[in-house]
Amino acid sequence: MSDDQHAAAMRFIFEAGVLKRAARTGWWFAGVKHPESIAEHSHRTALIGMILAAMEEADPARVTMLCVLHDTQETRVTDIPHIAKRYLTAAPNTTVTADQVADCPPNVIDTITAAVAEYEAGETLEAIVARDADKLECLVQAVEYRHQGIDNVQRWIDSSRAALKTASAHRLADAALTGQPLAWLTPPPNPK
Predict the structure, then answer these.
(1) What end-to-end distance do the CA atoms of the chain give, in Å?
(2) Of 2, 58, 73, 131, which is closest to residue 139 (Cα–Cα)?
(3) 60-69 and 125-147 are packed helices; what angle lies between their axes, rounded to 10 degrees?
(4) How far is CA 97 from CA 11, 94, 143, 178, in A?
(5) What is the C-alpha separation between 45 and 189, in angstroms, rounded?
(6) Chain segment 54-103, per-residue pLDDT in tens
(7) Does 116 score more than 90 pLDDT?
(8) Alpha-carbon distance 31 to 154, whole Å?
(9) Which of 63, 113, 166, 182 has the smallest CB count inside 10 Å?
(10) Cα–Cα distance, 144 to 153 (Å, whole number)
């Protein structure tokens, strides 16, 4: 591997850091003034993906990787809200990813482009679970925003729930909709 390939890999790492500052813009329509970042969304999506993978007997490591990479293209095309997609044509995520990693070491290129292609195709169990994790994270975020007083989130809940494919994701959605986001702060009773 050349120094140029290492530098290209570091450029991708630096580029991914932009996701820590880039907002999930669709929430502005619901009245959320300071929505979570794309990186915050991707982090919890990866965590949900790992949990769903275990529940659905998919490969948790693969699902987690697909989740981590599923929105990395948004450094270049931004988080385009659903309504804007009616009017805009963005390059496919696989094309953006290919550009992002073009000069990286060959194994890095192969690993990342294969994962993004798998996620975008949505055909493997791991890709289906990763896509469910993405939609479930959006639903969970909507539930949290509702508990914070943002009442215009039902459309996000409904569309996210309708997109879920796995039985485990549906059960977790039920738990999110009937649960309390801060219930974890109260320890369970200590049986004596």
Answers:
(1) 61
(2) 131
(3) 60
(4) 13, 5, 31, 38
(5) 30
(6) 999 999 999 999 999 999 999 999 888 888 888 988 899 999 999 999 99
(7) yes
(8) 13
(9) 182
(10) 10
Q: Are 45 and 101 in contact (CB under 8 A)?
A: no
User: Tokens standing for 116?
Assistant: 């993004």
Q: What's the whole-number mean pLDDT along residues 165-182?
A: 97
The alpha-carbon radius of gyration of the chain (Å, integer) is: 18
Tokens standing for residue 168: 């485990």
Answer whether 72's CB lies under 8 Å from 97's CB.
yes
| Residue corresponding to tokens 């292609």 | 117
- 40 CB-side CA count, 13 A: 11
Residue 19 in tokens = 């996701």
DSSP assignment of 51-86 = HHHHHHT--HHHHHHHHHHTTTTHHHH----GGGGG
Cα 184 from Cα 150, distance rounded (Å): 21
